[in-house]
What does this fold into?
Amino acid sequence: MYLRLRLLLIVLIIPAIVFAQKRVSLSGYMRDAETGESIISGVVYLKEAQQGGETNAYGFYSISVPPGTYTVTYSVIGYGTVTETIKLDSNRTYNAELHNKTALKEVEVTSRKDANVKNTEMGTISLSIGKIKTLPVIFGEVDILKALQLLPGVKTGGEGSAGFYVRGGGPDQNLVLLDEAVVYNTGHLFGFFSVFNSDAIKDVTLIKGGMPANYGGRLSSVVDVSMKDGNMKEFHGEGGIGLIASRFTIQGPIDKNKGSFMISGRRTYIDILAKPFLTGRAAGSGYYFYDANLKANYILSSKDRVYLSAYLGLDKFTFASTNSSFKATIPWGNTTGTLRWNHQFSDKAFVNTSLIYNDYKFAANFEQNDFAIKLSSGVKDWNFKSDLDYFNKYNNHYKVGFAYTYHTFIPNQISGRADTVVLNPDNALIKHAHEAGLYIQDDFELVKNVRINAGLRYSWFGQVGPYTSYTYSGEQKIDSATYGTGQIVKTYGGFEPRFNIRYSLDDASSVKAAVTRTYQYIHLVSNNGTTLPTDLWVPSTDIVKPQEAWQYSLGYFRNFLENKLETSVEFYYKDMKNQIEYGQYYVPNGLRDPQADFVFGKGWSYGMEVFINKTQGKFTGWLGYTLSYTNRQFPDLNNGQTYPVKYDSRHDISLVGTYERSKKWTFSGVFVYSSGNAITLPTGYYFIDGRLSEIYSGLNAYRLPAYHRLDLSAIYTPQHKTKRKWQSNWVFSIYNVYSRFNPYFMYANIKGTPQSGGAKITIYEVSIFPTPLPSITYNFKF
It folds into this structure.
């Protein structure tokens, strides 16, 4: 371990040593000419120097070359190329504005033409919002997380679910960020839709292998979502009317070319549409969700810019019986806020500093006559972070930064009343914690054809009192060690090396390898897949150790047809320690610390991913294939024997295609196939005193039938002889075209008694969408 760290430090602090002539820099920003939006991962290339670079998350770039006159090309897929002849006899600033070629419809999957071959990234894919909007979806609701589920290495959480599993990791092992704020709950409608309104989103990037050092706190993946900045030139609006929800977005300048804003909202009307059909006991029931996105930014000077982002989302389910006084209200949702300051220290140094807030709450309220009970859980964070990009004269791209988070965890709190008796606990189960990280990273070309991205991150976690230490021996025992409020009572920490290397075989192909170590200090512990309060975010304590993983990746990347066709094959192996589950006979108890019911074990996952992606032309799309194995071993589960996790499906195939037949019509199709998930089923029964009891198989010893489905969509865009400010299209889609009955779950029904001659076990399958599901959406833009 220490030898690895020493070698990594050498790579970080001793870049290629060049005794070179004087060098000058070309720096600036790349922006959308129509809106003023920053362009992420845009390519800048100096032809005579054969030197290039990319813009960062805020559109900034910096490249150093010997003095001279250069032909400089600015490009990114979906935009026209800008070429300038620039004389560099001293440091120079040039801000490039690129025109969007594709107007309403972007059809590309990656942000640059040869990114998969030239950079060091592995398992990293960017999806354009324009591409996502062409895909057929349930009820016409565009969903970026469902689009990510179509990529190799990403498995769905179930029919229609926005949950996902990456390379054998659990749902809590995905770091989902919205403008740098962590999103703890990504689903609306109990997970059927994601919380991301596509009209408010600019860019989506998935990292599932070779995670850079600036990301931490999760084992499996990063989903980095950026909201639109807002149009700095003129006012625009857009929206859509669908079967179950409508949305509207407006954006425009605060001060032309100096500042802008974007406000976006979405709400369902399921409750309104369903109300006339709800009769009898269900007449008082209802459900809706809404979300709102806000972003504003202002350029204070040529070197300073501030951003303010916010998100608010809420789901609310209500039930009021007309036959009794029983009432139920279940609200849950996220709130996030991000305040950022960009400062350019020089032509080579750029820093972003952020203050971030996020709050996830879940509550379930039940009332009947003089009886009431409330279950609540959630997590709240305050976060401060700062990241420095520094480009030296040898074109090393250094990133240095730190982050600090203060966590508050509410695990399954119960309160209520019965007549005059009030249950109001003193919040003894609420936990607090500090989390911090410090990192350094260098991306550089070691020698010709060899590029390295090496990073080292140190993470630290401290649990805060009040706190009572638990020890266990059979039944729970409570130690006498109790600590005061505010005192750090348990700490963890460790180094997390990250190393990616790329070797170019030629201009169109390369081989890459990556090694990544990660720690995860907070955990989502689930019980039987439910989304009720038994799914809890909990911190590491003296009982709950941090999760830890090593991941190794090796891949071959090759482009064809002048980079129009990208292909890759990646192999990975992931070793995970300190995995957490509920015990085999767990029963929810809101008055007891949930960690008393946890069991701990290890896991591992390995596999192969194939990705063939056509990015340009009238026909675009991709083919993804995953072969994978994911297992767990817990001493206290399954008699200590290894078992597959429920989302372990051997083969996954996704075929996605979009064909732009004309300016009026665009057609898309999605076909998915997946081996059946693992499940546990009863295999027998016995009677005790006339009562029937079931005998279950080993954990996840059986498989659901294979899952497959075909979805189709067509987009009709009316054309007008004269240019109009109002633009629109109609989206027609069909989900599950050939009526595949895909089981959502299976259950056993046992009939019979000893007196009747025995019992019979029958297994039933339940499907959520067994028939084709058509939808229609009207979208507009002005």
